[in-house]
Amino acid sequence: MGEGEIEVDSIQPIGLPDITPELARESGFLGVLDLLKVAKHGKGENIYIVRFHYVPPRAARTGRYGIGTGDRLHHTHRR
Fold it and tell me: Comparing C-alpha atoms, which of 49, 55, 59 is closest to residue 27?
């Protein structure tokens, strides 16, 4: 992606049942297990979905999602 910025649109608490195969695929993962391997870190029990978009230096914006547990957030977009 190169230089640019990430601009957060929203942060929402969600439950484990909200992490669907569709959400995992939209976030760039093969499925729910693949997403959880990356997003689960720390000993926290809280789950958040973070909606954000990448702002390139001089180009159009593109939307992305992020999921995290505990006190830290982890973006889920992968290339």
Answer: 49
